[in-house]
Specification:
The protein is α/β, with parallel strands linked by helices and 260 residues long. The chain is built from 11 helices and 10 strands. The protein starts with a strand and ends with a strand.
């Protein structure tokens, strides 16, 4: 069973080598790693050229969502995921993902647990155990663990790729659409690590993120419950106040969070 990992990238030479090495450090022998670089002007291309196993393109694109969709089109694996160029996989976890799909042929989507790290790669917090489904996603989009999600390629064939009009919450929209049709299966292991730092796109553009989440709700005709309205109000308030603490963003005081 081949796994295709898509990595969109732009000027991430500081981090991308760790991402590449984390895909290499796996216990599954059929992994296709596709890097869609948006024409980086730093040392990204030099790093990519050092790894002959990669399938990569470096050319101007229309943004991250466009790069992800073009990566989906290139993927030849039965199982697909995308791993951003500043995140990484834990060692020897993709074999478990492949085995789960092989042993559960009716499963369309699998997700695992996730850890959070700072810019230097020091782990700060792990996030485990929550059930992710359509209802929980609508109530709290922050529970999306995009680097720890995997799905059968036919899901993309049936529902399409990510919405290219979205720049920050394309993962939320993608998984929300999937959750309307398929059950998500949880694999109780920490699969990936998400790098959380001030320059991270989702942090620096908080207000746009909140507006995009609202647009996803409207597009998917989600009923605006009091809980959803509270979530949006907090998102907007945090973006204006400048609060960037990790615990607030990942609901670290809530169920499922623990110190790494």
């Amino acid at each position: 069973m081949r796994l295709s990992i898509i990595t969109p990238s732009f000027n991430q030479g500081m981090f991308i080598e760790q991402t590449i090495k984390s895909v290499l450090a796996q216990d599954h022998d059929d992994i296709e790693h596709i890097v869609m670089d948006g024409g980086s002007t730093d040392n990204t291309r030099e790093i990519l050229a050092r790894y002959p196993h990669l399938k990569w393109v470096s050319e101007r694109d229309r943004g991250q969502s466009d790069a992800i969709n073009r990566g989906f089109q290139k993927a030849t694996g039965e199982i697909v995921a995308w791993l951003n160029s500043d995140d990484w996989y834990e060692p020897n976890v993709l074999g478990s993902v492949a085995r789960y799909f092989a042993e559960n042929p009716g499963c369309m989507v699998v997700y695992g647990d996730i850890a959070f790290a700072d810019k230097q790669g020091r782990k700060l917090l792990s996030y485990k155990g929550d059930t992710i489904n359509y209802k929980s996603l609508t109530e709290c989009p922050d529970i999306v663990r995009q680097p720890s999600f995997f799905w059968r390629k036919k899901l993309v064939d049936q529902q399409g790729g990510v919405d290219e009009s979205l720049h920050l919450v394309m993962d939320f929209d993608f998984f929300l659409r999937a959750a309307r049709k398929w059950q998500f299966h949880h694999l109780p292991i920490t699969i990936s690590c998400y790098r959380y730092y001030d320059e991270n796109k989702s942090l620096s553009l908080g207000r746009l993120q909140a507006r995009e989440i609202l647009s996803v709700y409207r597009k998917n005709q989600v009923r605006m419950t009091p809980r959803i309205l509270r979530f949006l109000a907090v998102k907007f308030a945090l973006s204006f106040s400048g609060i960037r603490k990790l615990h607030g963003a990942v609901r670290g005081t809530g169920k499922g969070a623990e110190r790494a």
